[in-house]
Write a structure and sequence with these properties.
The complex is a heterodimer of chains A (about 300) and B (about 350). With about 300 residues, chain A is mostly helical. Helices cover about 65% and strands about 0% of the residues of chain A. Chain A is elongated. In chain B, a hairpin with a 2-residue loop joins strand 1 and strand 2. The two termini of chain B are about 30 Å apart. Classes of the chains: A mainly alpha (about 300), B alpha/beta (about 350). Chain A: Its main location: membrane.
Chain lengths: ~300, ~350
């Protein structure tokens, strides 16, 4: 687009008015995001589910009449009732108490695994995208290698090396999710480092490191946040899968995946021991997926006018 | 003539790519005096932007490589600076404004935070003082609206953003301002305002301006001297009046003929036939020869040097002027002496 001035005469002397256009209604981008957030049904439903689970996980255990590991040999495999809302398991433990406590574990694992992979992945992606050349080749090949394994298989291998425990399962899940964020960040950086404002920042004499963290990183957060929310759901499933295989949480921790595998023999006689932890996993994953999808729609720059 | 501020001498910037060497800038001489506005004109791909980025030290190396020549700012050789010294020069001694005001500001920060950052990059001042300076700089460019520092770039129009960019560039009072097509993306009325503003800053602050453009109208309004570039080389250099009254190089003549004239009726707008040569396969002779109306035998065989036209400070890279004045320019001769 060129606006070739064709006239060679001197310009009309203009008094250079303050071309103040009417102020946009929203003073901050955050305000805009909030407005489109409450309009998006899936984001709101997702957020409600996630916040409820979070609330239950934080304060729920304080109001429970039973401990999650309180064994009662007299009431084994009891059906749901007013006394035991979700019934009891083979050791007479209250399933409701265990499911509620399990929320803590799942959210904990999800949060740390996702945060860990975001931090490591973003840093690696930032370096690969900005500096390019051999740094990019090295980091990208490591991502390719990690992605060549099926995720859970790699997690199993890592846990097998470190030894089965909830903490190690968390590390394993963090590691297998690193490439997702790394590649995402790399692609964002590749796009953003071409932007004029990065050149302009260089032109005022800014250091590379400052440009990376002050100009490129803040412009790359949006997709990372969306991906992080979606990966939270994946991390919850992976934690449950490792727990189910006996590689994650160890008894008597009330981990949902572990509870599922413990209740396999009672699938016909006492299905509640399986239905409730299973539903809890499903609901958590659903909540994070809805929230993530909603955020993606809201934060998609193409949706903005 | 005024004191020289920027001196580009025999500067060559080549890009080494997989497909061959691209000679984007191939031996140019440009000087900008103190307080002078020099226009750098040429069509897309002639090396204007690479020249300006070279002066800022912003050409990525590799693939870019300085093959020869030097760039001096107030007697200091810029081509030998290390990364740290370069950062001191950028923004402080030389500032730059870009073509696209819509994308030259970071969308996620307020105008204020970006301006304060620019000030504190080179001046050891507190946030409050930086803020005051930013407000003052914005007043200088004609923005006095309260609260603009708390606004985001998307809330401003293109003209306003370009003013913010100029304010940001001028905030450390650089000696040289490089304006890379500063008005190309703006509409004509805003264009006039921005040019007016740049002229005023030049007059009041004495900032030299290297104005890069393909718009001869802008050149006529702004510049005292003009350098015409073609295919990585300077083809003509003269003062602005001579350029429009008595252009010497066929390329410049072609450029001037392609400006639509309001007072003359013409059938069809003139355009120079052909295209810019492929920078990987430059013609052996004169680089403009394949498109030139006056092409001779010699033009296809060897590239002409810059000939000095009878008048002082007017040079043209064309064999046509070989007859008028047998001698090459002083500058070319000096270099030969220095080189031998």
């Amino acid at each position: 687009m060129s606006a070739n001035s064709t006239s060679l005469t001197s310009p009309t002397p203009s008094p250079m008015p303050d071309t103040g256009e009417p102020k946009a209604e929203a003073a901050s981008p955050l305000g805009n995001v909030w407005r489109s957030f409450i309009k998006s049904r899936s984001a709101v439903i997702g957020a409600v589910i996630v916040l409820s689970i979070l609330l239950i996980a934080v304060i729920g255990p304080l109001f429970l009449p039973y401990g999650y590991n309180q064994v009662d040999a007299n009431s084994r495999l009891e059906a749901p009732s007013a006394v035991h809302w979700f019934g009891t398991d083979d050791l007479g433990r209250d399933v409701f108490a265990r499911v509620i406590n399990g929320a803590r574990i799942s959210l904990w694992v999800g949060f740390f695994a996702v945060t860990g992979s975001i931090i490591v992945g973003s840093l690696l992606g930032l370096l690969a995208g900005y500096y390019g050349r051999w740094i990019d080749v090295l980091i990208s090949r490591v991502f390719d290698i990690l992605l060549a394994f099926p995720g859970v298989l790699l997690a199993i291998a890592i846990v097998a090396m470190l030894g089965p425990s909830l903490e190690n399962a968390m590390y394993a899940i963090a590691v297998i999710n690193v490439p997702t964020f790394g590649r995402l960040m790399r692609s964002r950086v590749l796009a953003i480092k071409q932007e004029d404002f990065v050149l302009a920042a260089k032109a005022i004499g800014m250091k590379d490191r400052r440009i990376l963290f002050k100009h490129i990183l803040p412009n790359s957060w949006t997709p990372i946040m969306v991906q992080g929310t979606l990966n939270f759901a994946i991390a919850v499933i992976e934690a449950a899968a490792l727990g189910f295989l006996g590689l994650g949480a160890q008894p008597p921790e009330p981990e949902w995946g572990k509870m599922l595998s413990d209740s396999r023999q009672y699938i016909e006689s006492a299905p509640w021991t399986m239905i409730f932890p299973g539903s809890a996993i499903m609901l958590t994953v659903l909540g994070f997926n809805l929230l993530g999808d909603g955020l993606r729609d809201i934060l998609d720059p193409r949706m903005k006018t | 003539m005024t004191k020289t501020l920027l001196e580009i001498e025999g500067f060559k910037m080549h890009f080494h790519t997989d497909k061959g060497v691209v000679k984007a800038v191939d031996g140019i001489d440009i000087t900008v005096g103190e307080g002078e506005i020099v226009g750098l004109v040429g069509e897309s791909g002639c090396g204007k932007s690479v020249t300006s980025l070279s002066v800022m030290g912003l050409v990525p190396t590799p693939p870019g490589k300085v093959e020869a020549g030097r760039i001096q700012l107030a007697g200091r050789n810029l081509t030998q600076l290390n990364a740290k010294d370069w950062r001191q020069v950028r923004g402080n001694d030389i500032a730059m404004i870009f073509q696209e005001p819509m994308t030259s500001l970071n969308p996620v920060f307020t105008i204020g935070s970006q301006m304060i950052e620019a000030i504190r990059q080179h001046r050891k001042v507190g946030k409050t003082e930086a803020r005051e300076r930013a407000e003052e700089a914005l007043r200088e460019v004609g923005i006095s609206r309260k609260g603009i520092l708390n606004e985001y770039p998307h809330q401003l129009s293109g003209g306003m953003r370009q003013r913010v960019m100029i304010a940001m560039a001028m905030v450390c009072e650089p000696k040289l301002l490089i304006a890379d097509e500063p008005t190309t993306a703006l509409d004509v009325t805003i264009q006039a305002q921005i040019l007016d503003l740049m002229r005023r800053l030049n007059r009041e602050k004495g900032t030299s301006i290297l104005l890069i453009t393909h718009d001869l109208g802008v050149v006529a309004e702004m510049c005292s001297r003009v350098v015409v570039m073609y295919a990585g080389q300077v083809v003509e250099e003269t003062d602005v009046h001579t350029l429009f009254r008595d252009p010497k190089h066929p390329y410049t003549m072609g450029l001037l003929r392609s400006i639509p004239q309001l007072d003359k009726r013409s059938e069809r707008l003139y355009s120079i036939p052909g295209n810019v040569p492929n920078p990987r396969k430059m013609p052996t002779g004169c680089r403009f020869a394949p498109r030139c109306e006056h092409v001779h035998e010699i033009c296809l065989q060897s590239n002409p040097p810059l000939f000095e036209i009878a008048k002082e400070q007017h040079t043209s890279r064309c064999w046509l002027h070989d007859g008028e004045e047998k001698e090459e320019t002083d500058r070319d001769r000096t270099r030969e002496i220095v080189g031998s």
